[in-house]
Please model this.
Amino acid sequence: MQALRLVSGSTEPLNERTDGNERNGDCRTTDTNARFLEVWWMQEGIGTPKGHLDSLINGRLTIYKRHGGVDLPADLGDGMAAYLTEGLLAEQPYQVSAKFRCGGTERMIDIYLTQVAKGRDAMKDLTDLMRIAQKRYSHIHACALNPR
Model:
């Protein structure tokens, strides 16, 4: 939560809720009406057909590119960070998504934020948050991150 506070500038108390398992799930803050932070994850395998993650990331990358998205570094897999200002996506305009390998299996993480503190580099911060999320996922689920 320390990185989230730094990036967002939030000083209010934050509680989190996590649902799911290694295959899919989400973690979010529960204190505000505006879904301050959401993190979603998914892995290819039982219940998720081969190629599904490719379809999901390609859809996200298409949207992110239309909004001037920034490619993530290669060590984070295939992904982008973007600031989205139109339609329903604008509810959590700061978004980053990546498809990566961990333990030889395709995985995907999406992170959605409602705000980034004034004066911060949002795209760099989203990239840093993705790096933290992937490392934490790798640690929790005992899988080694595989750079592409």
